[in-house]
Amino acid sequence: MAALFTGKVLMANRERDEVETERELGQALENKVLLLYFGSGQCPQCRQFSPLLKDFFLRLTDEFYVERASQLVLVYVSRDETEEEQSAFLRTMPRRWLAVPFGDAFKRELELRFAVSEVPAVVVLKPNGEVIVGNAVEEIRRMGPACFRNWQEAAELVDRNFLLAEDFDDWTRRSITDPLRRLKYKLDKKTEAKNKERKEDGEESS
Prior knowledge:
This protein is an alpha/beta fold and 206 residues long. It has two domains: 161 residues, Glutaredoxin, CATH 3.40.30.10; 32 residues. It contains seven helices and seven strands. The longest helix is centred in the last third of the chain and has 46 residues. The chain is elongated, with a radius of gyration of 26 Å. The termini are far apart. This is NXNL1 protein.
């Protein structure tokens, strides 16, 4: 997915931080369903839909609702007329949202690539950039967070529990060797103490 944004800049919501390196983008987008939200804070239809999308996103990612955030990332592609309007809109949205900077020509590229002619529009993408849903606005309105399960299956995401199991194996291997490390540390300390004693004894006898 990061390939879609290679050489591009994304802004972290309500921060001046830029997520621009391939490594940072890779970490932000890897193994996740990506939503591209084309909208505007001034558009009447967007004003109706945006609160639904906000609630949808929070119910899948906020620890108030879920123990572990879903593998979901959202990038806002605005049609706001000014940077102030875009900033004002984003201040009302979740902090985890990313955004294409105001005035970036990349917004037009995305509109053309995904054939977005009207807003609001939510393009749902697999981690490899393939389209799952061309415009999920009605699906989100109708099903709410339940539609994420369908996208997750279509995206063929690597299950986080599997990754956690791998991490656990690494931890287990480390934990097995830890007592050996501690033992070696103790032996080293004893050897060091004995050498110090010998040195001191030698100095006294001389």
